[in-house]
């Protein structure tokens, strides 16, 4: 069983490799930094098609998402939006198109290499109201009551302490603000051996938790109007299964009731917040 620090280091190493390798190798996050996937079926097993969304920038799309949270996020002109796990900037640039010049978009990412890549992309686009900050989303480098909207795409499943992340999301949202988050969750149990496979953790599979538990954490953090906006089954191709499971284990897995899904979840912070959450670094509710 890996410690939280070991999991974070694993994620940082894998996504540093992904940021530095050619973009075409990232078509599936399950391949991720290994680049070992060879069949057409492997590509885009989780990612949705961004290309028709205004603000889309191909240089920022590494194919690492599992949904389209910005499409459901009800972002308005002039909003301040925070993108958690912003990667090369894909969702941040789509959000910027919706906020316009009067809005503000802040991307937060754990990996220096991703931050550098996102900043390069923002500079190419000439955007002066999109900012990328290096930081841990369990302790965001953002003041309280800052954001109108928070989005995230296939990132929270990589974070060991999901309770802390949703507490931080609550702190950082303005009263009456909301989030739309795409993530990978489970119904049923994964094969035990997957829990220690680095590629599958970086690929958002082995770090996923049960769907009911995920929604319960959001409720416990104090959010209201919790709504599953999209629920999509993720089918893992045989080529990937064969890399980690024996033929007998594959047969057993397929006969089981395990369901890996990408969900997009919406929730709102209360308009009046009596919890008095503190600033980063001082401990929080």
Question: If you had to describe this structure to a student in words, what would you say it looks like?
Answer:
- It is a single chain.
- This protein has 9 helices and 7 strands, in the order ααβαβαββαβααβααβ.
- It has 285 residues and is α/β, with parallel strands linked by helices.
- It has one domain: Rossmann fold (3-Layer(aba) Sandwich), CATH 3.40.50.
- β4 (147-153), α5 (162-172) and β5 form a beta-alpha-beta unit.
- The longest helix is centred in the first third of the chain and has 17 residues, at 4-20.
- It is globular and about 55 Å long.
Short overview:
By secondary structure, this protein is α/β, with parallel strands linked by helices. It contains nine helices and seven strands, in the order ααβαβαββαβααβααβ. It has one domain (4-236, 257-268): 3-Layer(aba) Sandwich (Rossmann fold).
Distance between the termini: 27 Å
The appropriate CATH architecture is 3-Layer(aba) Sandwich
Please bin the fraction of helical residues.
25-40%
Helix count from the secondary structure assignment: 9
Q: What Rg do the Cα atoms give?
A: 18 Å
Q: Secondary-structure element order, as H and E?
A: HHEHEHEEHEHHEHHE
Strand order of the main beta sheet, please?
3-2-1-4-5-7-6
Strand content: 15-25%
How many structural domains are formed by the residues?
A: 1
């Amino acid at each position: 069983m890996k410690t939280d620090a070991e999991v974070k280091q694993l994620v940082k190493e894998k996504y540093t490799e992904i940021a530095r390798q050619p973009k075409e190798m990232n078509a599936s996050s399950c391949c991720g930094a290994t680049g070992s996937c060879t069949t057409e079926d492997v590509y885009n097993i989780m990612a949705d098609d961004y290309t028709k969304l205004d603000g889309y920038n191909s240089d920022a799309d590494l194919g690492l998402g599992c949904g389209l949270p910005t499409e459901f996020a009800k972002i308005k002109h002039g909003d301040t939006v925070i993108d958690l796990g912003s990667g090369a900037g894909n969702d941040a640039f789509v959000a910027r198109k919706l906020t316009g010049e009067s809005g503000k978009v802040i991307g937060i990412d754990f990996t220096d290499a991703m931050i550098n890549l996102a900043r390069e992309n923002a500079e190419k686009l000439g955007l002066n109201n999109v900012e990328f900050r290096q930081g841990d989303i369990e302790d965001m480098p953002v003041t309280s009551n800052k954001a109108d909207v928070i989005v995230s795409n296939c990132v929270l499943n990589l974070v060991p302490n999901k309770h802390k992340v949703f507490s931080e999301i609550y702190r950082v949202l303005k009263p009456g603000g909301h989030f739309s988050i795409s993530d990978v969750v489970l119904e049923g149990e994964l094969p035990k051996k997957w829990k220690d496979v680095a590629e599958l953790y970086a690929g958002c599979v082995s770090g996923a938790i049960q769907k009911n538990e995920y929604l319960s954490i959001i409720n416990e953090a104090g959010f209201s109007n919790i709504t599953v906006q999209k629920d999509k089954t993720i089918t893992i191709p045989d080529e990937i299964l064969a890399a980690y499971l024996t033929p007998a284990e594959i047969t057993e897995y397929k006969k089981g009731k395990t369901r890996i899904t990408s969900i997009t979840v919406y929730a709102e912070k209360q308009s009046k917040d009596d919890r008095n959450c503190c600033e980063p670094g001082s401990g929080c509710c």
